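Appendix B, example 12.
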Amino acid sequence: VMQDGPYSMCRHPLYFGTLLLTLSAGFILQSVGLIAAIFLVSIVYLGITIPREEAALVGGFGQKYRDYQKNVSQLIPNPRTFRTPAVIEVTIEGLTAEVKRAMRWVLIPGACYLVLHLRAQEWWPTFSVWQLWQ
């Protein structure tokens, strides 16, 4: 069971990071509706996914994972529990793969600003949920 680095602060740092990244799109686009939708979908998704994943981890690691659950927050990081070894070995292949994955996330702010720019154009259609009931 990995218990160093981000996994020492919360058991699901990738889910937490993904939630923050997707919510940032709503904030950049200044859309309360998008923020609310992302948050609600995330709560449902994480409410289903995390318990299933943790059940599988308990099944695979047993008491060692149960002890980890007792000591480390599930989703919201606790910086006071952070710990990491003094030296970390990194492979070039692993680093290259992570940089490639991270580059996809770098595109989010640019895409959001493009949408903001397009929304400001006169030809951009305006739509309101309230129009459905009129």
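Helices lie at 13-28, 32-61, 63-71, 92-119. The mean pLDDT is 90.
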